[in-house]
Amino acid sequence: MGRLIRTRTYRRVLAVGYALGASLHLLDLFDLRRSYSTMDGLDQLWLFTMLLAEILASVGLWRARRWGMVALAVAASSQLMRHMSLLALYGLSEQLWALGVVGLHATSIAGLILVRRRNRLFFERVPQ
User: Fold this and answer.
1) Would the pLDDT of 5 be above 80?
2) Which of 10, 18, 19, 25 has its CA 20 to 30 A from that of 49?
């Protein structure tokens, strides 16, 4: 029982984190944080896709659905590839924040895999 509650807590923490990430992308969409209107088409498409993937991941993880973990894998792996390419293009000194994002997403994926292995009831609901 204790492992199941810890798994649920981990899922909920990730859900809140990805909801916050989606809110940052929503701010970008309305030009309140970064200038979405002046981005090229590929960056706009990536930003909108990340917004949808992080919303799906957040809701799916909170509600303990399998598609939530799939959305998390898509969002986190896409973020990992994007920010690692930024590190490769611009170097570590200018994009130090990207290293933190890479670590955060890698940790969330690894944590879900480890928790899933340890606890077969990962996606089953806990009676309230």
Assistant:
1) no
2) 10
